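Bumping with the actual sequence this time:
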Amino acid sequence: MSNQIKQNKNVGMLAAIVIPLALVLSIIIFKFVLGNGANFQGGDSANEPIKEGVGSYLGTIYKGGIIVPILLTMFLVVITFTLERFMTIAKSQGHGRVDAFVSKIRTLMSQGNVAGALAECDRQQGSIGNVVSAGIGMYKVMEADQNLDKERKILAIQKELEEATSLELPMLSKNLVIISTIASIATLMGLLGTVIGMIRAFKALAQAGAPDAVALSTGISEALINTALGILTSAIAIIMYNYFTNKIDSLTYAMDEAGYSVVQTFAAKNK
């Protein structure tokens, strides 16, 4: 259990480190990569982007304005925590297929092979293995106990399984709230950039005489770039959040199913 708590603390520290680093990196990218003079006509970022090459796209994104670094920060945070969740959930699944492990535990427990089921949990080395191992440990304790009645013994095993599951689930769902929050606000930040860009565009149109074509195009570019970045970031965050939520639900169901086998075996053997 101490290892699980330590893992949860490490994941929390990661969140506190990643977001500021992503912001700093985004500002650096905005100023020195997107805002590089080579991406603009005359070598000046105040001018229009060059017409051809990768630099034309980089310069165009730079023209998105001050909201771009914020959207880049959100994008980097989503990518970082997506990779982190992939690794964490893959590790939590342990070795081999989860459904095969559950099936094997069910078979071993139905045969009364408690030692074999415990050994299988040790080989699995995942969250579900930890939960079942905790349940089997209590199973053995309750079998040796001569004081409690059957119902209390079953309740003790169920409680142990629930506690073990409650220790595993926070590690699986950690940082998903960050991804879900970005999924909600990335589009709004893009919309804010769109509004700022359109204000500049209409300001250029409102000038006396001929409209300022450069300011007009810059305002429209800013509006569209921020919209695109916001939608892209939000879409990735929503897809990843739903994917990880589905994975966690599957693991939780497998934990419940394997734990149920432990409880049922105890109930059948102690009539």
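The tokens above came from a reply further down the thread. Residues 2-269 form one domain.
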